[in-house]
DNA sequence: CCGTATCCTGCTGGATACTG
DNA sequence: CAGTATCCAGCAGGATACGG
């Protein structure tokens, strides 16, 4: 075997290679902007439906419900209903959800770090001469 | 620069709070499954259009083109055209792209680690009694 | 081989209204 | 307050064709 790395472990994308694999399916489910925003804001702590809606901003009732159900189905978010009037429903990250939160935090950091690069690239793309 | 105080005490999602902020816009652009898959597979090294298409699998010509343009526009991917016949077009991650790759690698690792949790959660969701 | 354009279908996702 | 359902405009995204 080669001299490239000491350990010939599988590359990180190994399980994404087959489009019909479970890993690929989960990846495709979760890697969308609403899911990421929900995970990120829920990272602040347990929140009610309306609170979360307000925190995120710009998300419709329908999209929030739909994505929360998807995240619940995949065990990233736990839903707790308090049988009061009016009802109080709280959402919390599970352990898996907290794990994903670290990834999303990483993406937030990345956005911060490369904001300048990206803006520059955008103007270069609009006007290839000036760059 | 001098002794600037660390601003890292702000929560990671601070810049995502306003739905119309630049950070939020970039975040929303890039956090989608095709972009992530492209970044991840391009992490293996420079690739031609067709190669990348084959590696990813299950992506249409149109989606690949469209997302590659978006990533190029944001400076995550560099496009090199070799003026031969037939043409040879190669795509490479930029520094910013490599930075994002680390995040996506993190997500691949997360998927691996919680695959079992997620499968369990799914069956629990289908049949709340049995678990 | 790669890019762009066009067509067309089905799904996304917003707005609204009603229920408990 | 939260969930679900309905309606429907608009875009996503696949298939195809042609040009460089």
From TrEMBL, chains A, B:
The keyword Transcription applies. Keywords: DNA-binding, Transcription, Transcription regulation. Residues 19-119 form the HTH hxlR-type domain. Pfam families: HxlR. It comes from the Bacteria. This is HxlR family transcriptional regulator. It comes from Paractinoplanes deccanensis.
